[in-house]
Amino acid sequence: MTLTELKAKATALGLTPDEVRQHGSLSKKATWEIAIANSEEMKVAVDTHCDLMFGGTVWPRE
Question: Which of 3, 7, 14, 24 maximizes the CB count within 10 A of its CB?
């Protein structure tokens, strides 16, 4: 992916330049790749946690 494509993908994921900057220089593709990967990993972790906590749970009815 080009730097422009990486920036677009990061923006689509809701990442801000300040969040990406925590991973390095905004002029480096690797910085954007790491930030995107971390964001996607976090989403999977949250989704998995929510599935484990709430997935298939039937709340008792009174």
Answer: 7
